[in-house]
DNA sequence: ACTGAAAGGGTTCCAGG
DNA sequence: CCTGGAACCCTTTCAGT
């Protein structure tokens, strides 16, 4: 199930992560190969789902998203039905950029991106009205020091 | 400093976030306009830095990155020099995908993506050997429920 | 498995409404 | 500010090595 990229595959993935907007020629040159072999490898990796969605990074601040919260959630409920509803709620809410189920005494962590603290409060009220939650801690980001989706290949 | 996208700009940004790999024609059709105006808007937003890097989402699990940690850091040091070194360390470490400075009693949160728990421990040892840190809590992700970089425009 | 080339399609730009 | 079209570049495929 684990895909084992060879050296050239890894170089291609690194280049695509860094800038997916370049031409095949440029990427081929960057990895020291030529168009067709690089094209075949990209095609294979796309079909295998290794390479997924292509997207653009937007400037969140400039677009008015000035508040990022990390939300630590403890719950006492662990039934299937509660969890199903909780996950559905998270997936339906576009301000939730990340959600992970955790090991340990904190059950879930969310990354929530909103325009301001009021918008966070609206999200919070909506969340606790939809599912029972035992304890919530919100950590407010003052400064985004680093943000990347690139894997350290 | 805050860019005010109009309705069409917002539609374009939504489409690009969802799939930046389509042709201008397709995007123009999706937003109910045509090539040239959409192209001009994208160009303007690129030049303004609203639209940044173009990238691909890779399948982390399939590539062997099976462990994600959220790391909560408390420090007693708040001098400029300590902070400079700490930030430089975080930025230099490719396994750190996110780093935020926080308000409140936890000073920093990191998202760290590694192949396994041993690789996390190596990162942790390297970090505490480079800068003094008062207290560290590592939260291990058991399940990635949701992960997106899209802003809720 | 790579090279080179050819066809089709897409991006970029410009003239005109 | 939009439409349509022309030129050029890139992607995609294929035959040859």
Question: What can you see in these coordinates?
Answer:
The structure is a homodimer of 153-residue chains. Chain A is an alpha+beta fold. The first copy, chain A, folds into two domains: 41 residues, Orthogonal Bundle (Arc Repressor Mutant, subunit A); 74 residues, Alpha-Beta Plaits, CATH 3.30.70. Chain A is 39% helix and 28% strand. Chain A is built from five helices and five strands. Chain A has a four-stranded antiparallel sheet with strand order 3-4-2-5. In chain A, α1 packs across α2 and α2 packs across α3. The radius of gyration of chain A is 20 Å and the shape is elongated. In chain A, 29% of the residues are buried. The model of chain A has no long low-confidence stretch (mean pLDDT 96). β5 of chain A pairs antiparallel with β3 of chain B. The structure holds a DNA duplex (17 and 17 nucleotides). Chains A, B: This is Lrp/AsnC family transcriptional regulator.
Report helical residue fraction of chain A. 25-40%
What is the succession of H and E elements of chain A?
HHHEEHEEHE
Here the CATH topology of the largest domain in chain A equals Alpha-Beta Plaits
* Structural Rg of chain A: 20 Å
What is the CATH class designation of the largest domain in chain A?
Answer: Alpha Beta
Query: What is the CATH H-level superfamily of the largest domain in chain A?
Result: Lrp/AsnC effector binding domain/regulation of amino acid metabolism (RAM) domain
């Amino acid at each position: 199930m684990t895909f084992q990229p060879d050296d050239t595959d890894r170089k291609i993935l690194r280049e695509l992560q860094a800038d997916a907007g370049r031409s095949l020629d440029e990427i081929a040159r960057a990895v020291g190969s030529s168009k067709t072999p690089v094209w075949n490898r990209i095609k294979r990796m796309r079909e295998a789902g290794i390479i997924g969605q292509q997207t653009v990074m937007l400037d969140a601040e400039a677009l008015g998203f000035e508040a990022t919260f990390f939300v630590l959630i403890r719950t006492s409920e662990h039934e299937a039905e509660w969890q199903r509803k909780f996950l559905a709620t998270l997936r339906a809410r576009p301000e939730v950029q990340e959600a992970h189920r955790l090991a340990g005494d904190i059950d879930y962590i969310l990354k929530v991106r909103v325009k301001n603290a009021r918008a966070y409060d609206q999200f919070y009220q909506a969340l606790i009205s939809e599912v029972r939650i035992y304890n919530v801690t919100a950590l407010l980001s003052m400064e985004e020091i680093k943000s990347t989706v690139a894997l350290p290949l």
